[in-house]
Amino acid sequence: MAINNHRLIGLTGGIGTGKTTVANYLANAYKLPIFDADIYAREAVQPGSSILNNIAERYGADILAASGALNRQQLGNIIFNNPQEKYWLEQQIHPYVRDRFVEAIERLPLNSTAVLVVPLLFEANMTDLVTEIWVVFVDEQQQLNRLIERDELTLAQAKARINSQMSLQEKCNKADVVLDNSSTLEALLKQVDAAIKA
Ligand code: ATP
Questions:
Q1: Is 20 annotated as a binding residue?
Q2: How confident is the model at residue 3 (pLDDT cuts 50, 70, 90)?
Q3: Could you say which residues bind ATP here (predicted)?
């Protein structure tokens, strides 16, 4: 894809490592446009969408709440430990998300800097959409603590979520910039300042 001299930062990391924290800072302090894969992925399965219809066809209308919205928890139960169904679902959603990113990039003025927040940047093979990759890292103990606190999880639930993802170390190995969020917010934001000025 033609990138038109844009600087496109692919911001990724593990669950609860601080992607949103970094994206909010880049939006507020640097006024950068932020494009968010999670928002597009939710939009993909809105009531009336062809993807939601495909999902309801495959799993039955019970996958929908009375309002017609997707019952995410039930879908999560189906795909958890079922790689084939997880793959099927991803083949529905990832191309939609990719298309939204491409559209958003095409609307940017020439020579823009923008941030793409993509939790599954590597897993969904979206690295070609960006010109540099930033990974937000935390040590595993901190990651567990923050997940347990934010999402009110047990230790076992937090561990299961972390272990279901590509290892954070592997993501760091593929990064252009690693932001270490193992200590204070201030320390994190200093690293962001350095990276954006690089
Ligand atoms: P997810 O993958 O679930 O979307 P995320 O990578 O976007 O998560 P955040 O939501 O930014 O991560 O951060 C996870 C939690 O950790 C939040 O509750 C956030 O307030 C907290 N947090 C982030 N950085 C720090 C820090 N340096 N010190 C303390 N708490 C932090």
A1: yes
A2: low
A3: 16-21
